[in-house]
Design brief:
Number of domains: 1
Number of helices: 18
Shape: globular
Order of helices and strands: HHHHHHHHHHHHHHHHHH
Strand content: under 5%
Number of strands: 0
Distance between the termini: 31 Å
Radius of gyration: 21 Å
Helix content: over 70%
Amino acid sequence: MQSSNLRYIVLISLVAAFGGFLFGYDTAVVSGAIGFLREHFQLSADLTGWAASSVLVGCMFGAMFGGPMGDRIGRKLSLILCAALFFLSSIASAMPATLGAFAWARFFGGLAIGAASILSPIYIAEIAPEKLRGRLVTLYQLAIVVGILAVFFINLQIQRLGDHGWNVTTGWRWMFASLALPSVLFAGFMAMVPESPRWLMKVGRREEARVILERLGGPENAAREFAGIDAALGEEVGGWGELFHGGYGRALLVGSLLAIFSQLSGINAIMYYGPEVFKAAGAGQDAAFVQTLTVGFMNVAFTFVAIGFVDRAGRKPLLLIGTSVQVVAHMLVGWCFMTGRKDSLLLVGILVFVAAFAMAMGPVSWIVNSEIFPTKLRGRAMAVSIFLLWVACYLVSQTFPMLLEAIGPAKTFWVYGGFSLVSVFFVLFMVPETKGRTLEEIQASWKR
């Protein structure tokens, strides 16, 4: 592959991955606002969980409709519509007079997040060469964690603009409104990239697909890819029932469980409630925001580990190492809370957990889900697995404040450690290795 082709592929992959930036930014913005929201609306523990997790209900619906929408009108146009929803939700979330209005605004933002969480990795997987696909899809996870880091930094700066009373009345509003500008940028960038050639072939626009394939990999590679895609599409019907025949039911089970376990690890207990966790450990308001920012830096740093190794070591070894380290980290964090060690050791435990998640379960769950389904079914199948991801994410987000109140932080983190332990065995016995194989080869492997 020529360097000019590679630069072009990386460039358009980065544009599609920007949807992950908005995803990370919009889901994690609540971490800085939740304490002020709780005071502003005088929320109980369950309503605090609802304020943080209402966006995730939208994510569920967005995931269910995002895949079929991408199959019907294309990956590109669907992502542009997501950008418009991100913009409208960010403005509406900054203006509510009641918790109900806030929850509805966040719900519509969740529609955008849920749809983008399917469409961006699908787009990247469908334009990426097999030898680089893992790294390029990991750009999506990198964009998510950069978005999380960015909003942690923005939240820190906003809360420093005024005193505690100003943050309770006004500061949290600016946190949500800050997403508007990147939403506009994403729409503009997406308007300039090509449509997925695999989707174009699926809908019969073969010559457009051939031109894009040649631009991506040159004439010789394009001819090979064109023939492979054409043969695979000829074997597919594309109906929902096909998901449960020919081995694809197992693919759906693997993708769905991988998505669920990624959330039951408890990662979003940290990402959505980070400052509140550190306040519970004795940190002051500003120090809690700074420590949360440190978590964001660790998240980004270890995503680069995934980028460096996912196409060399493979998906499965990374998952086994990462989930095993998650177990140890959760045990340490729980022990710190149980013994009252609310010092640097607690922060180390949380950082080790975030690092383990960022190098393995975080990016690899997206990679595997974008690889294992056939072209005509990819949008629908990912709609199922990512819908279940958001259900699990909602359960963690909604129940975290309630678990803290009911059983305490030590046992709460041990619960997440237990789920991480189960995920180790799931990866060991059920998740296949997909590195270095074309999407069509992976598709054929399920039938064998």
